[in-house]
Amino acid sequence: MLNDRRRAVLAALVDEYVSTTQPVGSKVLVERHRLGCSPATVRADADRCRSHEFSYFDGNGSLD
Q1: What residue numbers bound the domain in which 41 lies?
Q2: CATH number for the domain that contains residue 33
Q3: Which residue in 2, 14, 33, 39 could disulfide with 6, CB within 3.0 to 4.6 Å?
Q4: Contact between residue 47 and residue 10 where contact means Cβ atoms under 8 Å apart
């Protein structure tokens, strides 16, 4: 299940990926989208989204 923060992370991830067509680092998401959490939290949330098959996270700090 997605909470508000995970929705924001997923929306930022999709927006950034669509804009660049490149893997997106969690630090970039925090800086560009002002998510109000740490890059580690973004990675954890992205991993949770991946486990629900909403996104692909390669585990190396880049999000696809």
Answers
A1: 4-63
A2: 1.10.10.10
A3: 2
A4: no
